Amino acid sequence: MKDVKLNPKEESTYECFDCGTVVRATAPEQCPNCGADMRNRQTPIE
Questions:
Q1: 38 DSSP β-pair partners
Q2: What is the per-residue pLDDT for 16?
Q3: What is residue 24's predicted lDDT score, i.e. its pLDDT?
Q4: What are the domain boundaries of the chain?
Q5: What is the spatial distance between Cα 27 and Cα 20, in angstroms, rounded to a whole number?
Q6: In 10 A of CB 40, how many CB atoms?
Q7: pLDDT of residue 30
Q8: Which in 3, 9, 11, 23 has the greatest CB count within 10 A?
Q9: Alpha carbons 16 and 30: distance in angstroms, whole number
Q10: CATH of domain 9-45
């Protein structure tokens, strides 16, 4: 698997670890719905 080159200034798709909310943003610190941590969907969970 290849690592994705991320540019922190570009919008990307993020998903909430708890409720599954998906947003397009530059780097959200927490979910807008429940306040939980977000992850970049381009980054594998391994």
A1: 16
A2: 95
A3: 94
A4: 9-45
A5: 16
A6: 14
A7: 94
A8: 23
A9: 8
A10: 2.20.28
